[in-house]
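Researcher: Structure for this, please.
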Amino acid sequence: MNNLRSPLAAALGAVLTLALTATPAQARPKTKPKPVAAAPVASTAPTETPEQQRGRINAEQAAAAQAQLKANADAQAAYEQALKDREAKIAADKAAYDAAMAKWKADSEACQAGDKARCAKPE
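Model: Predicted structure, token format:
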């Protein structure tokens, strides 16, 4: 066991030494990023009057609100349909369970009454 520890300790020591001596500056690339050119600024001469701007912005807001209302109505309809689908699946699962339970009870009672053909088969 001592023979195995010495090479393992030496390897671990070398790895730790390398890890501790490496600095974040060595990990960074040597090239500097190129500066991003500033976008040209368009002239700010108003092409609309304040009333026209307000009307345009109000129309954009009204359109966005209508789109949001439609999206909300669509989401509500999808939720209600998913709820109906879930309730239908629950009802179908309950009906299948009730049918299986009724068959089991009938078979169990018939078996206890002496109808060995309806007894559960041993596995």
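Researcher: Any notable elements?
Model: The chain has a mean pLDDT of 81. Residues 68 and 74 are 10 Å apart (CA to CA).
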